[in-house]
Every structure is written in structure tokens, then in C-alpha cells.
Amino acid sequence: MHHDVAQREDKVGLGIGMMALAVTFFTCIDTSAKWLVLAGFPALQVVFARYAVHFALSLVLFLPREGMDAIRSNAPARQAMRSAFLFGSTICNFTALQFLPITVTTTIMFAGPIAVTLLSIPILGERVGIHRLIAVCIGFAGVLVVIQPWGAEFHPAMLLNVLAMTLASLYFVMTRLLAGLESNATAQVWSSGIATICLLPVVFFVWEWPETLSGFVMMGMVGLFGASGHIFATNAHRLADASILAPMVYIQIITAAAASIIVFGEWPTFWTLIGAAIIVLAGVYIWHRERTQARRMTPPPGDPRASR
């Protein structure tokens, strides 16, 4: 019996480690995307590179192992919607990165878990108490501190970023909705495949070949980071509960600040850091409340609800 417990602990540790890796890869996606758009490549081309490489890798990884099952979806309409949300989020995010420091775009994306809490009410029929609603409001106040719509630091691209965050949150809610219905393979193939196919006709008109080796390398890397990040994140969720993994996203405060300083020489502003602190505190509070609620809601093993 003791052996079993140790194994479970191991998996949680491994899940947390994988999620930390995934989150680091997410910063790498943004860094390489920003590098590419600043180098003059059209944002849509960078989005295409990010998904096409991800799609190719997903097919190579999953087709030999799972055959056509990797492509067949049990809920095609919902899977297509989920993919469309992620795709839209990436377009908005990569476009915003042209104008904003990574620390700003990352901090706004941190409001994701807070938005997910709100969206879960109508979409998943979840009930959210007053404590969590107050935390949601505080979290959005943190976003306002970063954006400062009233100040000189405000840039319209921040609104694109808020849209990116909202679409990403819808993607996560759809992922929750499809949990247990679809395999990791199907989720990866669809989310990268739909974006690749949609962009194919468009990308021909904007495509610019890289003139340097670093340009080619970065084009490939943005997709490699995308595939790795999502595959690690999905595997992490198989090894540990989402409720444990959620706060790992906040590692990005450190990775995004490091990337911003090292690669672009941009230091996070005082307000970005203050806003980030507020959003993280609200997010961690919501996470804590959700875990407490889940523990309270879990029926005992003999309970008929446990078999649902």
C-alpha cells in the first residue's frame, strides 16, 4: 500500500515538472514570435509557422501509434470550436507582441484562470460563490493596473491582448468540456491542423522567405516550442490534477521577464510588476477556493455519485 502512495506522489511531482517545462516553452513561443515579427515577418506567417510545425510533429508522433484514431473526433463540432479559440488567441497575441513587451502580454494572459472561473458559470454550469467573484474583480483590477487605459502607457494592442486572453480562456473551458471524451492525440492534431489548413490559402499572399539562417531557425523553433509546450501541458494534466497544476502558469513571470531583458533589453515596468502581483494573488486565491470546494464536493467511495 505504501508503495502505491509513493508512486502517486511521483506522478504528481512529474506532472508539476512537466507543467513547469510547458510553461517555459510558452514563454519561448512568445519570445521567438516577437523576434520574428520585429524582424519584419508578417504576424500571420509566424502564426502559420507555429501551427504547421506543431501539426507536422503531431502527425509524426501520433499517427504511427494510433492510426486514424488520432484524427477521428468523438465531438467534432466542439473540437473545432476549441481549436478555433486557440487559433484566434494566437493571432491576437502574436499581433500584440509586435507592439508590447512580453512582460505586459504575459501578465494580461495571467488573467486567464480568472476569466475561466467566470466563463465556467454559463458554459459548464459551475456555481461560483461570492468569495471567488470578489477575487475575479480584484484580478481584473490587476489587469487594469497593467493596461492603465487612462495613462500614457496605454497602447491599443493591449485590447488585442485582452481578446487573446478571453479566447484562450474559452479554449481552456472547451478543453475541460472535452476531458474524457477525446485523446491527447486528437486534441493536438485538431488544434494544430485546423489553424494550419485555415491559414494555408492566406499565408501565400503574405509569405516572406527568411534571408538569414537565424530567420529559418526561429521559424522552425516557434512551431517546435508550440508543439512541445502543448504536449507537455496535456501530459502533465494526465499525471496530476488540473487543480494542482494551475498556479504553475505563474512561473512565466520569471521566464517572461528574463526573456524580455535578455533578448529585447526591455525591463518590466513598476506597474506591470504591481499588476502581475495583484493578478497572481487573485488567481492563487481562486485556485485555493476551487481546490477546497472540490475536496468538499468529492463523494465518499461508497456513494452512488462516485461512479458517475
Helical percent range? over 70%
Quote the average pLDDT. Answer: 87
Q: Kindly provide the radius of gyration, computed on alpha-carbon positions and rounded to a whole number of angstroms.
A: 20 Å
- Low-pLDDT ranges: 1-9, 303-308
- Biggest beta sheet attributes: none
Instruction: Please give the number of β-strands.
Output: 0
Share of β-strand residues: under 5%
Distance between the termini: 26 Å
Number of helices: 12
Element order, helices and strands?
Answer: HHHHHHHHHHHH
Oligomer: single chain
Structural class: mainly alpha
Shape: globular
Question: Can you describe what's shown?
Answer:
With 308 residues, the protein is mainly α. Helix content is 78%, strand content 0%. The chain has twelve helices and no strands. The longest helix has 37 residues, at 2-38. Residues 1-9 and 303-308 have low confidence and may be disordered.
